[in-house]
Design a protein that fits this description.
Layout (H helix, E strand, L loop, with lengths): L3 E6 L2 E9 L5 E3 L4 H5 L19 E4 L4 E4 L2 E2 H7 L2 H10 L5 H12 L7 H7 L7 H15 L10 H27 L12 H10 L10 H13 L7 H10 L5 H12 L7 H14 L4 H9 L20 H17 L4 H15 L1 H5 L6 H12 L6 H22 L27
Antiparallel strand pairs: 1-2, 2-3, 4-5, 5-6
Helix pairs in contact: 2-9, 3-18, 4-7, 6-7, 6-11, 7-8, 7-18, 9-14, 9-17, 9-18, 10-11, 10-18, 11-18, 12-15, 12-17, 14-17
């Protein structure tokens, strides 16, 4: 393969270097294109533009491959604990037993949040969206830990900020749940694992005991692993872009959470349940909506099917489908919307229309079903996505800072008016 690509602009030929990744991905390095030619590239949505090199996650949408630091998502989801994956993403290697214990203990020591944070929660209007609360609360942590504002802090200080954020995120997410219900906060318990602690803080009541179900813990652990990182998606690239200004970690992650909120990104699992509820409200006829999805003149679109990156199947969906079946069987949930979901799933996996168009159930489809069966309100679904994605965002931010990336500054092609003379207001017609 040639080590350069040639581009001819207005008769002037320029050679651009090729960058080849460890998985043989090929990119054209255009970092000097404007200097050499005066031209820039135009790529709406950055679908063909690499903004960075990265050692964290490899994704092949055509082959349905997802690997973190070289480890397949199938193995990680089946064999690992969530905090192991967090360590892997952030530190680059799976931890030894000693490293894991130290990592786990350090996180357990920082799960409590400052009491003044409750005062902030008390000020929220009734019914405010959990994602809006999460964005504000994570950003506010920089006020409680002002040392995080120093972009040149040493490795020890940086890791302390990372540890605090990982530790406090489940507590804050649980506080959001309890605050919505008007219930008192359940404090974290250091004897519980990361995932167990979150479920306990969310579902336990002060008036009664709460017994953790191993099947639900396993499903939650798996869901969080499956969401831990997904390469340069909208929220991850947002974290990198904001962080490139040397904004602190809390602010950068808060920006990523804001990007995740959109229904085209992290809000997709919520849209799945809202779709199922709408079908149920219309009589529960799943076949009617399968037919509507097939009708090219009908604006209805199935949520939770297909994927913008995965072209044949979503490897995460294959993994989580088993957990969905286990959770539903364990809980014995009698929910008409979940029955509709089953019918839609059957159609997508057997109907030639869906198979030919690669409209397979994705991770958002199954995660929404599991969350609903476990008792999470639909408004919390994207918060759960953020909880799982946190290690990936941190890893992306950390890598960007360590590689000393310059501040992000995309270019544009101007399409507005050319030079015009200012007209005083009293002379404008």
């Amino acid at each position: 393969m040639s080590e350069t690509a040639k581009i001819n602009i207005q008769g002037k030929e320029t050679e651009l270097p090729l960058i080849v990744g460890t998985e043989k991905e090929v990119g054209i390095d255009i970092s000097k294109l404007r200097v050499s030619t005066g031209a820039v590239t135009l790529d709406f949505g950055y679908k063909n533009t690499g903004s960075t090199t990265s050692d964290i996650t490899y994704l092949d949408g055509e082959k349905g491959i997802l690997r973190h630091r070289g480890y397949s998502i199938e193995e990680l989801a089946e064999k690992a604990e969530f905090l192991e994956i967090a360590y892997l993403l952030i530190h680059g290697e799976l931890p030894t037993k000693e490293e894991y214990n130290e990592w786990d203990n350090e996180i357990r020591r920082h799960t409590l949040v400052n009491g003044d944070i409750q005062n902030i929660f008390d000020a929220w209007p009734t019914g405010s969206h959990p994602m809006g609360q999460l964005i504000a609360m994570i950003s506010s942590l920089s006020s409680f830990y002002p040392e995080s504002l120093n972009p040149n802090a040493g490795e020890e200080a940086k890791m302390r900020t990372i540890t605090r954020l990982l530790a406090k995120m489940p507590t804050i997410c649980a506080m959001i749940s309890k605050n919505r219900l008007g219930h008192p906060l359940i404090y974290p318990q250091n004897k519980l694992t990361y995932v167990e602690n979150y479920l306990n803080m969310t579902f336990k009541h002060v008036t009664e005991d709460y017994e953790l179900d191993p099947i639900l813990v396993k499903a939650m652990n798996k869901l969080m692993i499956l969401h831990a990182d997904h390469e340069q998606n909208c929220s991850a690239s947002t974290v990198r872009l904001v962080g490139s200004s040397h904004a602190n970690l809390y602010a950068s992650i808060s920006a990523g959470i804001a990007a995740l909120w959109g229904p085209l990104h992290g809000g997709a699992n919520q849209k799945v349940i809202e779709m199922l509820e709408a079908i149920q409200a219309d009589g529960g006829d799943a076949q009617k909506y399968i037919d509507k999805a097939k009708d090219k003149n009908d604006p209805f679109r199935l949520m939770g099917f297909g994927h913008r990156v995965y072209k044949n199947f979503d490897p995460r969906a294959k993994i989580i489908k088993k957990s969905a079946d286990e959770v539903l069987a364990k809980l014995g949930v009698n929910d008409p919307t979940l029955a509709i979901a089953k019918k839609l799933e059957e159609a997508a996996l057997s109907d030639p229309y869906f198979i030919e168009r690669k409209l397979f159930p994705n991770v958002d489809f199954y995660s929404g079903i599991i969350y609903r069966a476990m008792g999470f309100p639909v408004e919390m679904f994207t918060v759960l996505f953020a909880l799982g994605r946190l290690p990936g965002w941190i890893a992306q931010w950390k890598e960007m800072m360590e590689d000393k990336h310059p501040i992000g500054r995309p270019r544009q092609i101007y399409t507005g008016p050319t030079t015009r003379a200012f007209v005083p207001m009293d002379q404008r017609g």
